[in-house]
Specification:
Strand order of the largest sheet: 8-9-1-12-20-19
Distance between the termini: 24 Å
Radius of gyration: 32 Å
Structural class: alpha+beta
Oligomer: single chain
Number of helices: 11
Shape: elongated
Number of strands: 20
Strand content: 35-45%
């Protein structure tokens, strides 16, 4: 149940490109809100048995020592050492959500075999004996848990106020395959009662420890997912998680840092009252995305350089022509393979989330350089322009799709090589022809490719995403999706579990 946070950073990246002012109606100090419905909990429940088995396997049991008096035997002292689980299985598990009790997990028929070494001694008026032998414990139990989540200095604090192990069977078998004598059978019946309480206490303690390890692992992985290079987004909690009978919701800072310095953000606009549309639902505020754009600009990530085949692809229109393409008309007499275009942002762009879509406002530069092997390269054309584009984002076939619905631009600066002598009116005509021929869509296709590759590198491939929906509102974007269980993430946790426990 604690893997929900792995999904949060995945869709924060999607929001960056998909993408009420009354302070009393918004959530304070929160840039990202994540909500999982009960249906999502059922998806996570598919792998609960693996977590429970890992909990039993990694449970550490202390040496058990005791002394008592048994009829006919007299005084009996005993100790159990090196107790560990040899084999186990889980039949099934169920999960439910409760406003009062938290996350309710019921695991049926947990069958486990323990083994270890037992030493015992008994003495009376007639004799005094000491024995040391191997033993096995065969148990079958149902486990019922109530899990509560709380805020603890920006992280999840997991408590388990109710942990019940109802043993259908717990038997102590002495000497394994050998037949026990009547004294050993009498002793085994007595200590089985003590073992029930020891095993229950240790397993409940281990479940509590495992739950907090998994919560920490999940939040840490989410932080690593959102971080790329020197750009990071905080996933620290801002309040206690909200748990109802229908969903679990966590609220996160969403503050962005670049080179360990926090980027200033305006207050969030995520409303308090929201409705879920899919199993997983994410709300990302406008300031979070603009902070990411600010950091990306200063990290030189908003620059695109094209040459050779990519440059030819940008200016071809699919129809064979005898005449030169637009770029060759702008820079006549220079072969395409000697030209290079660099697009870049002059200042951090901004995103405005509106019901009509995401309005991207940017000031960009375009520079055309002539490359030469015999002499130094030189600039042929340089221009600056402001643009405003409404973009609609979708995710399908494991790819990001960006669709511009309107585009307005204006030229601010034009400089060209004296041999070309382009003025603003000529450049404007060339740009109008370029955009009319689908030039903006071709440039956006490179952005689609970059964002898709980044998401996949960060782990989006772990999730079987279905029916994604992205909707923009005033000041924030909503993302919802159904999904399949991210098995790889659980395997990563279980694989790293032993080192985590040792530390």
């Amino acid at each position: 149940m604690f893997l929900w946070m792995q999904l949060t950073p995945v869709f924060a990246f999607l929001a960056a490109v998909s993408i009420s002012d009354d302070p009393a109606s918004t959530i304070p100090n929160t840039g990202i809100v994540c909500r999982f419905t009960k249906e999502a909990g059922l998806v996570f429940n598919q792998e609960t048995s693996d977590v429970i088995q890992a909990t039993f396997r990694h449970a550490s049991f202390p040496d058990i020592e005791g002394k008592t008096s048994i009829l006919l035997l007299g005084s009996v002292s005993y100790s159990f050492k090196n107790l560990q689980i040899n084999n186990m299985s889980v039949e099934r598990s169920d999960v439910d959500l409760s406003n009062e009790k938290g996350i309710l997990i019921a695991i049926q028929n947990v069958a486990a075999a323990f083994e270890g070494t037992m030493e015992y001694a008994y003495s009376n008026w007639l004799l005094h004996l000491n024995h040391s032998l191997d033993f096995e414990i065969h148990s079958q139990t149902d486990v019922n848990l109530a899990v509560m989540l709380a805020y603890d200095n920006g992280r999840f604090a997991v408590t388990i106020p109710d942990c019940q192990l109802n043993f259908d069977k717990l038997t102590l078998k002495i000497q394994r395959d050998k037949e026990a004598n009547w004294i050993q059978k009498l002793f085994a019946d007595f200590v089985s009662f003590t073992l029930r309480h020891i095993v229950k206490g240790q397993i409940c303690a281990e479940i509590h420890k495992m739950a907090n390890l998994l919560a920490d692992f999940t939040l840490d992985q989410a932080g690593l997912f959102i971080q790329d290079g020197e750009i990071a987004t905080s996933v620290k909690l801002t309040s206690d998680p909200v748990l109802t009978s229908g969903y679990i919701e966590s609220r996160h800072e969403g503050s962005v840092s670049y080179k360990n310095s926090t980027v200033f953000q305006k207050p969030s606009a995520i409303p308090v009252e929201r409705g879920e549309i899919r199993m997983f639902n994410l709300w990302v505020s406008e300031p979070v995305i603009n902070s990411l754009l600010f950091a990306a600009h200063h990290d030189n990530r908003l620059t695109l350089t094209l040459s050779d085949g990519h440059l030819l692809k940008l200016f071809e229109d699919g129809e064979p022509k005898i005449e030169s393409n637009l770029l060759q008309q702008m820079v006549p007499g220079i072969p395409m393979h000697n030209l290079m275009i660099t697009l870049g942002s002059l200042r951090p762009p901004s995103a405005l989330f509106k019901p009509v879509g995401t309005i991207l406002q940017a000031s960009v530069s375009l520079q055309v350089d002539v490359l030469s092997s015999s002499e130094d390269s030189y600039m042929a054309l340089y221009l600056e322009m402001d643009s405003e584009t409404i973009v609609h984002t979708s995710y399908a076939d494991s790819k990001i799709h960006l669709r511009p619905s309107s585009h307005h631009w204006s030229i601010k600066v034009v400089r060209s090589n004296p041999a070309i002598a382009l003025d603003e009116s000529k450049v404007k005509c060339y740009l109008e022809a370029f955009f009319a021929a689908g030039g903006l869509e071709k440039i956006i296709s490179y952005i689609e490719f970059y964002i898709t590759a980044l998401l996949h590198k960060k782990g989006l491939r772990y999730f079987n995403i279905t029916n994604p929906v992205m909707e923009t509102y005033e000041g924030y974007v909503t993302i919802g999706t159904d999904f399949g269980f991210p098995r790889q993430l659980l395997e990563n946790f279980l694989r790293n579990l032993a080192p985590i426990i040792r530390t």
